[in-house]
Amino acid sequence: MQKSCFNKFLCTVLGPPGAGKGTLSLRLRDLYGIMSMSPGEEIRRIVSSGQGDLSVQLKEAISMGHLVSDQLVDEIVRNRLTELLLSAEGIILDGYPRTVEQAKTFLSFLKEKVKARVFVFVIKADRNLLEKRMSNRLICKNLGCQATYSKLSDSERVSQNICERCDGELAVRLDDNPAGIKNRLDKYEDMEQQLVNFYEQNGIEVLRFNGDEPSVDALADTFSKIVISAESVC
Ligand SMILES: [Zn+2]
Fold this sequence. Notes:
Blueprint (H helix, E strand, L loop, with lengths): L8 E6 L6 H12 L2 E3 L1 H11 L2 H12 L6 H16 L4 E5 L5 H14 L3 E8 L2 H9 L1 E4 L7 E3 L5 H4 L10 E2 L6 H24 L3 E6 L5 H17 L2
Parallel strand pairs: 1-3, 1-4, 2-3, 4-8
Antiparallel strand pairs: 5-6, 5-7
Helix pairs in contact: 1-9, 2-3, 4-5, 6-8
The site of zinc ion (ZN) has 8 residues, from loops.
Protein backbone atom coordinates (compact mmCIF):
# COMPACT_ATOMS: atom_id res chain seq x y z
CA MET A 1 0.00 0.00 0.00
CA GLN A 2 1.27 3.38 -0.93
CA LYS A 3 1.81 5.55 2.14
CA SER A 4 1.51 9.25 1.86
CA CYS A 5 1.49 12.18 4.23
CA PHE A 6 -1.13 14.29 2.58
CA ASN A 7 -3.56 15.66 5.11
CA LYS A 8 -6.43 15.45 2.67
CA PHE A 9 -7.91 12.49 0.92
CA LEU A 10 -9.97 11.92 -2.13
CA CYS A 11 -11.78 8.65 -2.39
CA THR A 12 -13.77 7.42 -5.29
CA VAL A 13 -16.31 4.77 -4.35
CA LEU A 14 -17.09 1.98 -6.75
CA GLY A 15 -19.87 -0.45 -6.10
CA PRO A 16 -22.72 -2.06 -7.94
CA PRO A 17 -26.13 -0.47 -7.82
CA GLY A 18 -27.79 -1.68 -4.63
CA ALA A 19 -24.50 -2.03 -2.72
CA GLY A 20 -25.24 1.06 -0.67
CA LYS A 21 -22.81 3.66 -2.04
CA GLY A 22 -25.28 6.51 -1.64
CA THR A 23 -26.28 5.36 1.84
CA LEU A 24 -22.62 5.02 2.83
CA SER A 25 -21.88 8.57 1.65
CA LEU A 26 -24.80 9.96 3.64
CA ARG A 27 -23.78 7.98 6.73
CA LEU A 28 -20.16 9.21 6.53
CA ARG A 29 -21.44 12.74 6.21
CA ASP A 30 -23.69 12.34 9.27
CA LEU A 31 -21.20 10.43 11.46
CA TYR A 32 -17.85 11.98 10.57
CA GLY A 33 -18.67 15.12 8.60
CA ILE A 34 -16.93 13.72 5.51
CA MET A 35 -17.99 15.59 2.40
CA SER A 36 -19.24 13.68 -0.56
CA MET A 37 -20.20 14.66 -4.04
CA SER A 38 -21.69 12.96 -7.02
CA PRO A 39 -21.97 14.48 -10.49
CA GLY A 40 -25.74 13.88 -10.52
CA GLU A 41 -26.18 15.68 -7.21
CA GLU A 42 -23.93 18.52 -8.35
CA ILE A 43 -25.81 18.95 -11.64
CA ARG A 44 -29.11 19.12 -9.75
CA ARG A 45 -27.60 21.70 -7.40
CA ILE A 46 -26.42 23.90 -10.28
CA VAL A 47 -29.74 23.63 -12.12
CA SER A 48 -31.77 24.45 -9.03
CA SER A 49 -29.54 27.47 -8.26
CA GLY A 50 -30.76 28.94 -11.57
CA GLN A 51 -27.59 31.05 -11.76
CA GLY A 52 -25.08 31.42 -14.57
CA ASP A 53 -24.70 30.14 -18.10
CA LEU A 54 -23.94 26.63 -16.94
CA SER A 55 -27.25 26.36 -15.13
CA VAL A 56 -29.12 27.43 -18.29
CA GLN A 57 -27.09 25.06 -20.45
CA LEU A 58 -27.72 22.10 -18.15
CA LYS A 59 -31.40 22.86 -17.76
CA GLU A 60 -31.78 22.94 -21.53
CA ALA A 61 -29.95 19.64 -22.03
CA ILE A 62 -31.99 17.92 -19.32
CA SER A 63 -35.34 19.29 -20.49
CA MET A 64 -34.59 18.07 -24.02
CA GLY A 65 -33.77 14.64 -22.63
CA HIS A 66 -30.08 14.89 -23.61
CA LEU A 67 -27.35 13.35 -21.55
CA VAL A 68 -24.87 15.83 -20.13
CA SER A 69 -21.64 15.31 -22.09
CA ASP A 70 -18.66 13.65 -20.43
CA GLN A 71 -16.58 16.79 -20.99
CA LEU A 72 -19.11 18.91 -19.18
CA VAL A 73 -19.37 16.41 -16.32
CA ASP A 74 -15.55 16.41 -16.04
CA GLU A 75 -15.55 20.19 -15.84
CA ILE A 76 -18.34 20.29 -13.25
CA VAL A 77 -16.56 17.73 -11.05
CA ARG A 78 -13.20 19.53 -11.32
CA ASN A 79 -14.71 22.88 -10.38
CA ARG A 80 -16.59 21.53 -7.41
CA LEU A 81 -13.65 19.47 -6.14
CA THR A 82 -11.32 22.44 -6.32
CA GLU A 83 -13.84 24.45 -4.32
CA LEU A 84 -14.50 21.72 -1.73
CA LEU A 85 -10.86 20.84 -1.19
CA LEU A 86 -10.15 24.36 0.03
CA SER A 87 -11.91 23.54 3.28
CA ALA A 88 -12.77 19.82 3.38
CA GLU A 89 -10.35 17.29 4.88
CA GLY A 90 -11.55 14.64 2.57
CA ILE A 91 -14.04 14.04 -0.16
CA ILE A 92 -15.86 10.99 -1.33
CA LEU A 93 -16.73 10.86 -4.98
CA ASP A 94 -19.76 8.77 -5.73
CA GLY A 95 -20.47 7.86 -9.34
CA TYR A 96 -17.33 9.36 -10.85
CA PRO A 97 -15.25 8.50 -12.86
CA ARG A 98 -17.52 6.09 -14.69
CA THR A 99 -15.31 5.25 -17.64
CA VAL A 100 -11.60 4.71 -18.22
CA GLU A 101 -11.60 7.85 -20.39
CA GLN A 102 -12.99 9.88 -17.49
CA ALA A 103 -10.55 8.25 -15.09
CA LYS A 104 -7.62 9.32 -17.32
CA THR A 105 -8.77 12.94 -17.40
CA PHE A 106 -9.41 12.80 -13.68
CA LEU A 107 -5.96 11.44 -12.78
CA SER A 108 -4.18 14.04 -14.84
CA PHE A 109 -6.23 16.76 -13.13
CA LEU A 110 -5.31 15.32 -9.72
CA LYS A 111 -1.62 15.13 -10.55
CA GLU A 112 -1.60 18.74 -11.61
CA LYS A 113 -3.87 20.39 -9.11
CA VAL A 114 -4.62 18.30 -6.05
CA LYS A 115 -2.38 17.38 -3.14
CA ALA A 116 -4.34 14.56 -1.57
CA ARG A 117 -4.13 10.87 -0.88
CA VAL A 118 -6.17 9.23 -3.59
CA PHE A 119 -7.71 5.83 -3.18
CA VAL A 120 -10.52 3.73 -4.53
CA PHE A 121 -13.01 2.00 -2.26
CA VAL A 122 -14.64 -0.94 -4.01
CA ILE A 123 -17.71 -2.41 -2.38
CA LYS A 124 -18.17 -6.06 -3.32
CA ALA A 125 -21.51 -7.76 -2.94
CA ASP A 126 -23.14 -11.02 -3.84
CA ARG A 127 -25.18 -10.72 -7.01
CA ASN A 128 -28.26 -12.56 -5.69
CA LEU A 129 -28.29 -10.31 -2.68
CA LEU A 130 -28.04 -7.20 -4.87
CA GLU A 131 -30.91 -8.34 -7.07
CA LYS A 132 -33.02 -8.91 -3.98
CA ARG A 133 -32.06 -5.55 -2.49
CA MET A 134 -32.73 -3.65 -5.71
CA SER A 135 -36.11 -5.24 -6.23
CA ASN A 136 -37.09 -4.09 -2.73
CA ARG A 137 -35.65 -0.62 -3.02
CA LEU A 138 -37.48 2.63 -2.39
CA ILE A 139 -35.98 5.99 -3.22
CA CYS A 140 -36.91 9.44 -1.94
CA LYS A 141 -38.51 11.45 -4.75
CA ASN A 142 -37.06 14.70 -3.40
CA LEU A 143 -34.17 15.36 -5.83
CA GLY A 144 -32.21 17.14 -3.14
CA CYS A 145 -32.33 14.05 -0.91
CA GLN A 146 -32.66 10.77 -2.82
CA ALA A 147 -32.09 8.65 0.27
CA THR A 148 -32.81 4.97 -0.33
CA TYR A 149 -34.73 2.52 1.83
CA SER A 150 -35.88 -1.05 1.68
CA LYS A 151 -39.49 -2.16 1.49
CA LEU A 152 -38.42 -4.76 4.06
CA SER A 153 -37.47 -2.03 6.55
CA ASP A 154 -39.31 -2.22 9.85
CA SER A 155 -39.60 1.56 10.08
CA GLU A 156 -43.19 2.67 10.30
CA ARG A 157 -42.55 5.84 8.29
CA VAL A 158 -40.87 3.90 5.50
CA SER A 159 -43.80 1.49 5.40
CA GLN A 160 -45.97 4.57 4.78
CA ASN A 161 -43.61 5.64 1.97
CA ILE A 162 -42.28 8.64 3.89
CA CYS A 163 -38.59 9.59 3.83
CA GLU A 164 -37.06 9.64 7.32
CA ARG A 165 -34.57 12.34 6.34
CA CYS A 166 -36.77 14.92 4.63
CA ASP A 167 -40.40 13.70 4.88
CA GLY A 168 -40.40 13.35 1.08
CA GLU A 169 -42.41 10.68 -0.69
CA LEU A 170 -40.75 7.31 -1.38
CA ALA A 171 -41.20 5.47 -4.65
CA VAL A 172 -39.81 2.52 -6.62
CA ARG A 173 -37.30 3.51 -9.33
CA LEU A 174 -38.65 2.86 -12.81
CA ASP A 175 -35.70 0.67 -13.79
CA ASP A 176 -35.76 -1.42 -10.61
CA ASN A 177 -37.50 -4.30 -12.43
CA PRO A 178 -35.85 -7.72 -13.14
CA ALA A 179 -34.66 -6.90 -16.70
CA GLY A 180 -33.50 -3.40 -15.75
CA ILE A 181 -31.68 -4.75 -12.69
CA LYS A 182 -29.85 -7.48 -14.64
CA ASN A 183 -28.83 -5.01 -17.32
CA ARG A 184 -27.46 -2.48 -14.83
CA LEU A 185 -25.52 -5.13 -12.89
CA ASP A 186 -23.97 -6.55 -16.09
CA LYS A 187 -22.93 -3.09 -17.26
CA TYR A 188 -21.57 -2.23 -13.85
CA GLU A 189 -19.42 -5.39 -13.59
CA ASP A 190 -17.87 -4.67 -16.95
CA MET A 191 -17.12 -1.07 -16.01
CA GLU A 192 -15.69 -1.98 -12.60
CA GLN A 193 -13.25 -4.46 -14.12
CA GLN A 194 -11.96 -1.90 -16.61
CA LEU A 195 -11.65 0.87 -14.03
CA VAL A 196 -9.92 -1.27 -11.41
CA ASN A 197 -7.40 -2.49 -14.02
CA PHE A 198 -6.73 1.10 -15.01
CA TYR A 199 -6.25 2.31 -11.42
CA GLU A 200 -3.96 -0.57 -10.52
CA GLN A 201 -1.85 -0.02 -13.61
CA ASN A 202 -1.51 3.60 -12.55
CA GLY A 203 -0.48 2.84 -8.99
CA ILE A 204 -3.69 3.99 -7.31
CA GLU A 205 -4.59 2.22 -4.08
CA VAL A 206 -7.64 -0.01 -4.58
CA LEU A 207 -9.30 -1.29 -1.40
CA ARG A 208 -12.02 -3.93 -1.59
CA PHE A 209 -14.76 -4.37 0.97
CA ASN A 210 -17.46 -6.85 1.50
CA GLY A 211 -20.80 -5.09 1.20
CA ASP A 212 -22.86 -8.22 1.80
CA GLU A 213 -23.43 -7.20 5.39
CA PRO A 214 -26.60 -5.25 5.72
CA SER A 215 -25.10 -2.73 8.12
CA VAL A 216 -23.96 0.48 6.49
CA ASP A 217 -22.50 1.50 9.86
CA ALA A 218 -20.01 -1.40 9.65
CA LEU A 219 -18.85 -0.11 6.26
CA ALA A 220 -18.69 3.46 7.53
CA ASP A 221 -16.61 2.27 10.48
CA THR A 222 -14.17 0.41 8.19
CA PHE A 223 -13.91 3.46 5.97
CA SER A 224 -13.19 5.86 8.82
CA LYS A 225 -10.47 3.51 10.15
CA ILE A 226 -8.71 3.59 6.79
CA VAL A 227 -8.73 7.35 6.78
CA ILE A 228 -7.58 7.60 10.38
CA SER A 229 -4.83 4.97 9.96
CA ALA A 230 -3.56 6.84 6.93
CA GLU A 231 -3.22 9.99 9.02
CA SER A 232 -1.45 8.20 11.83
CA VAL A 233 1.38 6.86 9.64
CA CYS A 234 2.48 10.37 8.77
ZN1 LIG B 1 -35.78 12.38 1.45
